[in-house]
Amino acid sequence: MSSRARVATDFSSVTGALPRTEGILNLTPAEAAEYLSKGAILVDLREAYETNFRVFEVPQTIHLPWTLFSKGFERLPRDLPLVLADASGIYGREAARMLRNAGFTNIAKMAGGMIDWDREGLPVRRDPLFELSGQCACKLKTRTGKNPLLDKNAVVIDPSREESP
User: Does domain 19-156 have CATH number 3.40.250.10?
Assistant: First the structure.
């Protein structure tokens, strides 16, 4: 993965539009998009069902759902800048804290998650056939099954498997 990074970003020296939280850089979606276009990697913390209808359209993504994060985060690359994102910005803070406590130094989190990313008109891949539907949250499902939006080049971390990205 490191061969894809075009610009060495050091988030420890970046001043963003938002204040840092516990020393961790908070990025607006527009700021995150800029760093992602320059080689930072998006770590998508959303669960599989949250990615069925829309995914971030960025050059490099690692999918590591929040429910698997504590078992799989050690497999994330330590030598590249990572931007953490989820659906609304809730889990990114705790994920960033866990990474920092584990010795990761080049991390940032995106405030507002996919909700604000999409609201700001940033690139999103969508497939209406995979939009979630159902009478209530307990019965949400896709209309056709598997997720065609996940890029074949995207890395999916599954802690139950041994190989690393």
Answer: yes
